[in-house]
Amino acid sequence: MSTTQRPNILLIVSDDHAAPAISCYGSEMNHTPNIDRIGNSGMRFNNCFCTNAICTPARGSILTGKYSHKTGIKTLADTIDHTQEKTVAQRLHEDGYQTAVVGKWHLGHGGVRDPHGFDYWNVFPVQGAHINPEMIEMGELKRFNGYSADIVTDSSLDWLQNRERDEPFFLMTTYKATHDPFFPNPKHLHLYTDEIPEPPTFNDDYENRTAAAGMNTAKVSIMQRKNHLPEPTPEGLEGDALKRWNYQCYMQNYLRCAHAIDENVGRLLDYLDAEDLAEDTLVIYSADHGFFFGDHGWYDKRFMDEESMRIPLLARYPREIPESGVSEQIALNVDFAPTLLDYAGISIPEDMQGRSLRRSLAGETPTDWRTSMYYRYWMHLAHFNIPAHYGVRTERYKLIYYYGEALGAGGAIDRATPPEWELFDLEKDPHEMRNVYADPAYAEVVLELKAELERLRDELGDII
After folding, report:
1. DSSP 183
2. pLDDT tens per residue across span 324-379
3. Cα dihedral sign for 294, 299, 305, 307?
4. Which residues fall within 8 angstroms of residue 165, CB to CB, at 6 or more apart?
5. Other Cβ atoms within 10 Å of 146 Cβ, number
6. Rounded to whole angstroms, how far apart are CA atoms 64 and 85?
7. Cα–Cα distance, 353 to 364 (Å, whole number)
8. pTM to 2 decimals?
9. Which position among 86, 173, 354, 369 has the lowest Cβ density within 10 Å, counted as fewest Cβ atoms?
């Protein structure tokens, strides 16, 4: 049922928390009953994607409703320019919402660019720490004792409890978990001690793929060399035995971090229930990007593979969103900002590139909804030796162009890598194991997708 009442808004964003580690998305690895409460009493999007799978750019897109090439936030080194880009928080604040952000901000180079548009902010400097983290509260650096997810929730609840009650609120609660090095809350060390099944592509040999796949150094087999594991490696392990141990260590601790998020999401939802706010609050749960769970032998993100670019999107608002809804429509992180403005009754600026999901959340399928999406990763060989690339994903196909020295990072020639194309038929090859770009049977598909890719780039203004 539609209403003219402006909802409160609680936007929960986790770091690296991919949908396959959420039980309402079908996870067999773990159980997330509190996050499930959002999806089960609202809408679950099965095809929500980020447009650049790295922390800072993804967060910029969530806040502005724009792609990286429009915000200028293309890499981890970029900052948000509040003189040029007005965030959804600023727009809500100007229209009477009380606003706060607590947790990971990560939109300032080497530190924190003070969040604008928030009445209250308490954020980690850069990545932050899992245990006894430092946080910057309203400009003052403080140390907090305890586990990061608990601390973020404590601060969020304190602000909710002490807010003015006569205006709606917008609260961004942004967890550091499940980011590496996957240090769990010590009280959760007894969880997930059974062996985690390895994914079917764990021992991928990258045959019939581009050079980019083989170049990637974000490999489970060498995680211990990069200080991305929270436990020391047992002596004497090597080869496949070391890879298997790394995977178990990684995944068990990752899932413990996810458990901490779920516990704390439960605390936030319980507060809304106890204060009789649940009916009047739009609650959204998502993540900045996806993550590889040993798929193709990898961890981390960045690539345009499904595991990296797919993000969870769960939303509930009992006054308007039906229970137990499932959408297969292509949704994007640039849609979040216009969606929040729509629910708040604020006009969506013309320069926002996303679209409101409000009708989709009500269970409708707009006839003019997108059937393809554009992705671009800019950090050419900067981390894990992954080349810059862009591409198009439709409901069935994915075409990726690793442009290498043809463009380099940001248009400049960088270390040489050969330009290469990949095409995947997601219907026949959902794990993206077979590049069919050169297969004559897909020649017409290649032409159609290249035309669609150029159409999207032209429409979005990413012209080089």
Report:
1. P
2. 999 999 999 999 999 999 999 999 999 999 999 999 999 998 999 999 999 999 99
3. positive
4. none
5. 12
6. 7
7. 21
8. 0.95
9. 369
